[in-house]
Amino acid sequence: MRRERKLDAKHGRQLPAIERIDALIIAFRALRSAQSAQRLEAMQGLLTDWDPPRLPPTFNVFSLLDLTSDEVRHSRFLAWLMDAEGDHQQGNLFMRAFARACALDIPEDNIERYRMRREISGRESVVDIMAYRFGEFVIFVENKIHAEEGPGQLVREFRDMRRICKQLRVSEDRQYAVFLTPDGRQPVSGGGTQWVTLSHSRLAEVFEKALSEVTDGKVRTIVRDWIEAFSSRKEWARMTEFSEEDRLLIEDWDTVEDLLEAAQRLRVKLFAVLESIEPDLRATDWWRDGWAFVRKGTTQVYISNQAWRSDGDYAIWIGVEEFTPDAVFGSGTPPVLYVWVSGKRYELKKQLAEAIVNGEHDMAGEVDHDPGSAFLVRT
Question: How much is the pTM?
Answer without folding.
Answer: 0.56
